[in-house]
Amino acid sequence: MRIREVYLDGFGVFHDRRIVIGRGNDGNQGVVLFTGANETGKTTLMTFIRGILFGFEGETSRNFYAPGRGGRHGGNLEVETLKHSKPTFHGDTIYAETRVLDKKLTSKGDRGIVSVETKGINQRGEEVCYFKRKVMVWTNEAAPGRERPYETAFTAED
Known about the structure:
- By secondary structure, this protein is mainly beta.
- The protein has two domains: 1-77, no CATH class; 80-142, Thiol Ester Dehydrase, Chain A (Roll), CATH 3.10.129.10.
- It is built from two helices and seven strands.
- The strands form two sheets. Strands 4-7-6-5 form a four-stranded antiparallel beta sheet, with no helix packed on it.
- Strand 6 and strand 7 form a beta hairpin.
- The N and C termini lie far apart (48 Å).
């Protein structure tokens, strides 16, 4: 397995942080080392990756790594395929069409791994990008309550 990218929306010290894991000059993955001073997030990053792959250790772990700098608790790993077939420009409107390819429950049964493919289509009906990825999502029964991003709801008339 190759982890191509780690994105942390809100997890411990990380907020809106993207870490791209590239290949070496010879095209091979090789060994990836994360280095840094004490208290910069190395253990937090490894806890996140392990949690995404093998499950988090319940509420204690999730509270311990609550977003300290904003964002929603969580993130994402791995983009399998990404193709940009046409350029996009400022002012373009991009619509997404997503199809579920596969889904399976994790061993804990409260979430699942969903494989999807998504096409980005511009306002002229041209496919501008395509990607396949896997995401971990809660089951309907286990999903935490949804939070609105605004104090009060608004309607189309607002």
